[in-house]
Amino acid sequence: MKQIAKVVVDVPVMQTNQPYDYAIPPTLIDRLQVGMRVEVPFGPRHIQGFIVAIVNEPDFEGELKEIIRPLDLEPVLTKELLQLGEDMADQVYAYRIHCYQTMLPPVMKAKYEKEFYLLDGHQAEDVQIVFQGEDVISWDRALEIEALPQLLEWKKQNIVDIRYLVKSKARVKKKTVYQKNISPSEIEEEMNQLSKQAKSQRALLEVLMAIEPEAWLTREQFREQFDIMPRTLQIAVEKGWMITEDKEVYRDPLKNRHFAQTEAKVLNEGQQIAYQAVKEKIDSNQHDVFLLKGVTGSGKTEVYLQLIGEVLAQNKTALMLVPEIALTPQMVHQFKGRFGGEVAVMHSRLSTGEKYDEWRKIKRGEARVVVGARSSIFSPVENLGIVIIDEEHETTYKQEENPKYHARNVAIYRAKYNHCPVVLGSATPSLESRARAQKNVFHLLELTERANQQAMPDVRIIDMREEFQSNNRGNFSQILQDKIRDRIDKKEQTVLLLNKRGYSSFIMCRDCGYVHECPNCDISMTFHMDTKGMKCHYCGHEEPVPNRCPKCQGNQFRYYGTGTQKVESELQELFPDARIIRMDVDTTRKKGDHERLLAAFGRGDADILLGTQMIAKGLDFPNITLVGVINADTSLSLPDFRSSEKTFQLLTQVSGRAGRSDLVGEVIVQSFNPDHYAIRYAQNHNYDGFYRQEMALRHQSGYPPYYFTTQITVSDLDEKKAQTKIYEINAKLRNKLEGQTIILGPSRSSIARMNNRYYFQLLIKYKQKENLHEVLKEILDASQKDNAKGLYISIDTEPVNFF
Ligand SMILES: Nc1ncnc2c1ncn2[C@@H]1O[C@H](COP(=O)(O)OP(=O)(O)OP(=O)(O)O)[C@@H](O)[C@H]1O
Ligand SMILES: [Zn+2]
Ligand SMILES: [Zn+2]
Predict the structure, then answer these.
(1) Keyword annotations for this protein (predicted)?
(2) Residues near 659 by Cβ (< 8 Å), separated by ≥ 6?
(3) Which of 39, 462, 722, 728 is in Cβ range 3.0-4.6 Å of 716 for a Cys bridge?
C-alpha cells in the first residue's frame, strides 16, 4: 500500500489552488502528518508546500514525484486552520498558499536558495578552482567570486546543474544551562584535593553544595548571583562536576516588565447582564454573535476580562483582537495583570523572532489567551471558548493586501467551528454590524452608562468660519486657547487630535499653482518638516524640496496642509511654558516609541498630547479633562460613502478620552461644517440618531448595509492594456450576471497611476449573490495568462476604503 500526500504548493497560480499528489517515501511514512510543511520537487525547482491530506490512492495518473523532506517535526496548521484556509481562499478570491502563509509567523515562509552542483566525472582544473574541492557552490558565493557567467556556461555544457533549495528562516533561540552532577560527599572530596590557588573552583564547589540538585542555571545566573565566571563553569564540566545542555528559550519582549496582579471588579448591572448572556453560550458550547455596544468608558474591557476568566476556568482558550494602535502597554497590562503568563501578545512591532516565539507558546498550549492585532485571528489555539473583537468598527480589521480577508468574518467562522460565542465590542459599531443586530442575526447587548457613573463629557462645537472672519488664521480658536491655558494652570492634561484622514501636506507654486507630484504616481508628494524633504506615501519615492518651480521657474512656494509638526510649533508659540508630546508617524517610527510617549504622558511628563488618529483609542488616563479636535471635517470630504460614519466614530472615540475618572471632562470640536449631522450627533453622544439618519441615506443611494459590494481592479504598466481589460470584464459581467446587480464604472481609480502602474476599477453592488461567485471565479481563472504578462486583476469583497 502506497501512501500519497496531497500538497498545496508555493506556486501562486489558480490551478495550484488544488493540491498536488506526491508519493511519501518509505522512510517518511511514519513521520509525515497533515498540516506539516514539506519540501517537494516542482518542475526543476524545490519548493515549500503544506500537506493537506494523506490518502492511499492518487487522483493523478502517472508517475508521482516523491516528497523530499519534512520542514517541521509536527504539524504547524491544525485541521481547523487547513479547512479555514481552503474556504477563505474561495471566499476572498485568494490563493490557498497565501492563506496558509498568512496564518503563520513570517519566519516560516520559505526562503529559496539556488546552488550549482557538479555533475559526475568533470574534475577539470578550472572547475576545481571554482568549487574548491566541494561538489556544490551556492549562487550567492558564485556571485561573490564573480564565477556566475562561467558556471552558467558550464551548465550549458552539462558540467554542472542548478538546484533550488528551501531554506527555513525560523530559528529557535537556545541558551546553555548547567546542572550539578556531584553529591555532597564528592564535593567535600574534591575540595580537599584542590590546590590553594584554585580559588574560583573552590567558590564554585561551595555554590554547588548550596544549590538544588534539579536546578538548571544559565551562565548569566552564575555570574550575577554567585560571581562565577564562564571559564570556571567550563572546568567544572570537564571535571564532571556539572552537566550542560542547550535549552530552548523564548524571546520575550516583555520579560523585564512586571505586571501587578489585578483583581476582577464587581460588575455593575449592565455589565452583569451582558456577561451573563455570553457566559450561557460558553457554558453550553453554543455559537452566537453578540454586539456589545457600550459608550466610551462603560467598562467593556472588564466584561471581556471576566469572560476570558470564565473560559480559562473551563479549560478553554480565548482570542482577543484589538486594533494595532490600541494595543498599548496599558491594554496589554490589563490582560497580563489578570492572566499573567497565560497571555501571548501578537502585534506587528514585535521582531520576527519574538513573533515566532509567541506563536510557539500558543501552539504548545502554554499561552491560552491571545491578545493581538488582525492576523492573530489565525492563532493555532485549540478548544476555543470565545473570540472577542474590540473596536469592531475599525477598518484595519480588513486586510488590504491578499488575501483580503476581514478578521470579523474569520472570527465568526472559527467560533462556529468551535461552538463558541463571538463578542464584537464598540462604542460606535459599524453600520453593518448594527444593522445585523437589528435583524437579530447578531444579539445586541448595551452598556448605556459609564462604569464610574461619570457623565459623558460636554461637547462644544466651534464654527471656524467665524474665527476666520474675525481674522484668526491660526489653527486654534480663541475658546480652545483659553481652555488649554486653564488646564495648564490647573495641572490637568489636554489631548489634541489632528484629523489627518485623507489629508497630507503638500507644496504649491505661488505664481503658477504648480503642485509637486510624484514622478511614479499621480499624487502630490507629502512635505516632511523634519527632513525638509518630499516623500510619496504610495511608492516611497523621496526628493528634496525643489528650489524653483519646474513649470514657471518661480521660487515662492506655499506650504499647504497642517502637518502635526507645524501645529506643534504654533502650539508651542501660543503656550511657551507647555510641555507637549507629539504623536504621529514621524515620532513613532522606531520600535517602542509609541509606548514610551504614552507612558510619559501617563506619568504626567507633559501637559498636552498632540497627535493623529493614533491617539483616539484606548487611552484611559484620569487626568485628561480637555479634548480638542483641531479639524473635525477633513475626513468628511473624502470620496467615500463611509466618510460620515468614519468622522462620527472618530469624534466619539476621541471625546471619550475626557473625564473618565473623577474629574469632569470637556470637549472642543473645531469645524468648518458645524451643522453636519455626523458632527451634531457626535456632540450629543447620540449613536442611535446617527445610525437612523445614516441608514436612511445608505438606503437612498444603495450602499452597504443595504447592498453588498465587490470591487474589481485591473492594473498594468501599459495604460491601454489595463483599460481594455476592465471594459472586457465589464462586458462579461453585464452579460452574465443575473438578478438586481448594479455595476458602477468602469472608471479610472482615483489615484490613476501608482508606482508607474495604471489602475482601473469597477464596483459591483448586489443584494443576492446569485451566480456572481461563479462569474468572478471564471474571470480569475481566465486571468492566469494575463497575470504572467504583468496585468493584474484583483477582486475585493466588501472593500473598506474607496479611492
Ligand atoms: N464594574 C466596575 N466598577 C468600577 N470601575 C469599573 C468597572 N468596570 C470598569 N471600570 C473602570 O471604568 C473605566 C472605563 O472602563 P473601560 O476602559 O473598560 O471602558 P471601555 O468601555 O472599554 O471604554 P472605551 O470604549 O472608551 O475604550 C476603567 O478605568 C475601568 O477600570
Ligand atoms: Zn510655478
Ligand atoms: Zn509615488
Answers:
(1) ATP-binding, DNA replication, DNA-binding, Helicase, Hydrolase, Isomerase, Metal-binding, Nucleotide-binding, Primosome, Zinc
(2) 454, 455, 456, 457, 624, 625, 665, 666
(3) 722
